[in-house]
Here is the input.
Amino acid sequence: MGKLIIKEKEIAVPGELLAEGMDHLPGAGTYREGEMIVAGRLGLTYVDGRTIKLIPLSGVYIPKIRDIIICKVIDVSFSGWRLDTNGPYSAMLGMKDATSEYIARGADLTQYYDLEDYVVCGITNVTSQKLVDVTMKGPGLRKLTGGRVIEVDSNKVPRIIGKQGSMVTMVKQETDCSITVGQNGLVWILGKPANELLAIRTIRKIEKESHLSGLTDNIKKFLENEKSKLGGLK
Amino acid sequence: MSYSKRADGRKFDEMRKIEAKAGVIPNADGSAFFKIGNTGAYAAVYGPRNLYPRFLQNPKKGILRCHYNMMPFSGKGNRVRPGGSRRSKEISLVTGKALLPVLNLDEYPNSVVDVFIELPETEAGSRCAGICAASMALADAGLLMKDLVSAVSVGRVDDRLVIDLDAVEESYEEGPVADIPIAMMTNSDKITLLQMDGLVKKEQLMEVLEMAKKACKEVYDIQKQALKDKYKVEKQVAGEKNE
Here is the structure.
């Protein structure tokens, strides 16, 4: 009979024994060693039926298929654009996936996306060698103009977005800014300068206090406080 | 003459006092501090990240680069000349080899993981402290790892087998001394580093290895606790999964 050694939602360090016996299955971040399931990284244990998973708490962004990310154009080639994903691997945006406009043969591609431009794109494919293909065709995928881009811990992105986007929606409304959060930890913010700064402070606070319960209420209070200090939004 | 009592009053199988802390360098992807007695080591991990020049890339797996450095003021004697030396190059190499067996770098092809170990104070056992700090920092960086690496130096002073030699014991003059740094994957009891400076008999070596196993377990518990302490707060919200 299999036995669960560790409790659910506990921190496991690499090499820690999670379960014994064949009744449980090793999920992401864990591996099987003989009859045992062992932690293969540092993370939070999560038992899903028979499967034991580890939720990462730290680490750089590793591209995953279907992620929506914010990237910077770092190179322009004959057939497309190379993008920096804020992780160890760069992504390729092909001409076909770049825009619905007609691109003439031999056209200068910088007129669509130039070097240093930021774009919101979706990952369509990641190969075993971590070659990443992205597309710009889809709802909300576009070139970003104006505003500013900040970097946050990509593991905290779910907290910044909140349940069904509740957190980011609140920050957007309260600061009167347009905000796009990329799964790779880049956040784009556009609004009046003072409001942008407030939004950045708020996001930094969310990032710092992401582990506290009642986060949404705290942030709401924080925003109201800050706004009254500023004398309302400009 | 026999070595009947240790200079600092420790028992023969007792280590110096150990302190460990994870997440000490905010700019790094993972970091840790490990101190044993008067030997302290900071380790910072960057990566996996892009690797250039490109000919260094390995399409089958990521590579690990280790860098061991003693700060100029770290020793008890003369100032350590800054920059790499023959000794630091050797220790960087063996540190990398001690850590590589636990890392699963297959998941990060064409990239590099950089480990920087800096020692602000040293008094024997610095490579072991460096390895302990580095293994914690790698775990803190969220890399895929099979196990943590724990290290300790063991050896003999005259006719006694001892754990965790300090500087006085390493330079004991009234009898032969052997210094044996050992690094282990504690959960699977596998040795990833075994060096020896000095002479021991085969039986003594076998005995001292058993002592090292026990000591590594203690080190492992401290490393594990330090990592858990850093992330303890994250637990509270585990239930509130969202996307």
